[in-house]
Amino acid sequence: MPDSALTPDTKQPPLMRKSKFKLGLKQWLTVLPFVAIGFIGIAVFVIYPMIRNIMISFQDYSIMPNAANPWVGFDNYTKVFQDPNDRFLIALRNTFLNVAATVPVNWFLAVFFAVLINARFVKFKIAFRTIYYLPIVTSWIIIALLFKYLFADGDGGFINFILHKQLGIIGEPISWRNNYWSAMIMIWLFHIWKTVGWGVVIYLAALQGIPKDLYEAADIDGANAGQKFWKITIPLLKPITLFIVINLINGAFGFFPQVYFITQGGPMNQTHVIPSLIYIEAFQNLKFGPASAMGVMMGVLVFILTYTQMKKIGRQRMF
Amino acid sequence: MQTSLINKIVVYAVIITGALLFVFPFIYMILTTFFQGTNTLPKPEQVFSVKVNFANYITVWNKNNFVNYFMNSVIVTSVAMVGSLFLGALTAYGFARFTFPGKELVFRIFLLTMFIPGVINIIPQFVIIKDMGLVNTYSGLWLVYIAGGVIGNVFFLRGFFESIPKELEESVLIDGGGNWRIFWNIYLPQSLPALGTLAIFIFQGTWEEYFLALTLIKSEAMRTLPIAILMFNDKYSTNYGQVFAASMIALLPVILLYITFQKKFVQSGYNEGGVKG
């Protein structure tokens, strides 16, 4: 660490040089008053819950007081896979579908809108940024209520009204949440609409860091807008793009309110993702063991995904 | 080189269309809050022909203990916000200004946990709070909010703290002040924009938090606003005017905060220390 030379401990005269262990101990004692509460909090409410989650996944766990909670080995895990409705596997499939369907669209819209808003002649940039960011600051619950309302059944729902009555694109009003694919599309639209503003704002900030003279040089060479976009903007934004795509993947991987508030997993548990399945299994069906087993499996999956992503990024400063 | 007029029109058309797509649902929602009483889905024609009135807002405010839930949310959010900011800043200060063995390793482990979706932890967090006898208390909720948020907040603040010039500390050191004085007199005031931005993020996150509040708080009188809104939706499932009037009331503080402070926002993560103007 470059700043180590400036910290109080290393400023001491050579006379007081101690063994490495003692120095480390002293450094810990110096910093402890500042980090102790934070570390305890993290240990109790972040790290320990993960361990506890693994423990519960091997127990026949009940929230009743004085329950025995016997150890049952891998029973909960086999239960998850022996489910006659294959809910876990369906949720897993949906998770990957969600990533595949939303990440490319979300990324493209973010960079597309950001580049256009960033164009030299566009006025009211901040106003546009604010409007695009509005869905981000609005709570998931409210947007979910709004989307369920806009996508209501029959011609009374605004989307059906537009698509059917006004434009005549569809033959009859769609019951969005009653069919698998229409429900999935609704969830994806909900997610994209809610989150695309985040990418726009990040890209807008990044675009301001691109030196203007690069574009001027390209202008002199007679490059058109498309060439400038693909040859200058996209390559220079690469680190930010990596950051955004990783966050989009993680966001799409962690769908939860998107599904819980829109479909509750319906129709017939077809649209569940793992988090929504975990929550309903635990707190509605009170099956904590199998729910925890799903949590552990998802945790391992996310860990592998994150670990490979982190390796890809290497030593870039964002982590 | 000048951009041609046609290009300008096309660009404006596209970004205005985008803006309309983002803003229209809100307009439709606001129009619906003016829609009066009948217990059916308001038809688009009806929504577009409403007259501005605040009857639904007044009804909602006085109904269903709404004020009570609103105040619950104010209490829960303000304590969680102050606690999170303080603990986050304190821990970030430890990471930013001091050297200690294993610092980067600890930091990396902390960051890894950030990628584990929060819902996985809800079950054990509920069990731990239950073991502590804090189910159905705000203390339990605050503990999970504050402790669960430390890592993200430290991650956000550390970069800003590290960009504070060391020379600033000298005045305190000359006066004989120690590490605490440096924290209070240098680090906190110097990073006000970052702390302010973080405060708004925490406010928003806590204000709209649903799952933990639903899981940990069992008594109806102690519920928070997001749960109250969904209860409106259940109990009066067909009265869209009221549901969205309640939503608008819940939304207003957050939107006002964002619009007021958005020019002062700092960007986090990739260009730490940068203050966005």
Structure characterization notes:
The complex is a heterodimer of chains A (319) and B (277). Chain A has 319 residues and is mostly helical. Chain A has two domains: 18-75, no CATH class; 83-313, MetI-like fold (Orthogonal Bundle). Chain A is built from 13 helices and no strands. Chain A has helices at 20-57, 75-82, 87-117, 125-137, 140-150, 158-166, 180-207, 212-220, 225-236, 238-253, 257-262, 274-283, 288-313. Chain A starts with 19 loop residues before the first helix and ends in a 6-residue tail after the last helix. The relative contact order of chain A is 0.12. Chain B folds into two domains: 5-56, no CATH class; 59-264, MetI-like (MetI-like fold), CATH 1.10.3720.10. Chain B has 13 helices and no strands. In chain B, 40% of the residues are buried. The model of chain B is unreliable at 268-277 (pLDDT under 50). The chains are: A mainly alpha (319), B mainly alpha (277). At the A-B interface, helix 1, helix 3, helix 4, helix 5 and helix 7 of A face helix 1, helix 4, helix 5, helix 6 and helix 7 of B. Chain B: The chain crosses the membrane at residues 9-31, 69-93, 105-129, 141-161, 182-203, 240-261. Chain B: Keywords: Cell membrane, Membrane, Transmembrane, Transmembrane helix, Transport.
Indicate the CATH class of the largest domain in chain A: Mainly Alpha
What would the principal axes of the Cα set say about the shape of chain B? globular
What fold name goes in the CATH topology slot of the largest domain in chain B? MetI-like fold
Approximate helicity band of chain A: 55-70%
* Low-confidence runs of chain A: 1-10, 315-319
Give the CA-based shape of chain A: flat
Protein name (chain B): Carbohydrate ABC transporter permease
Keywords (chain B): Cell membrane, Membrane, Transmembrane, Transmembrane helix, Transport
Domain ABC transmembrane type-1 (chain B): 70-261
Family (chain B): Belongs to the binding-protein-dependent transport system permease family.
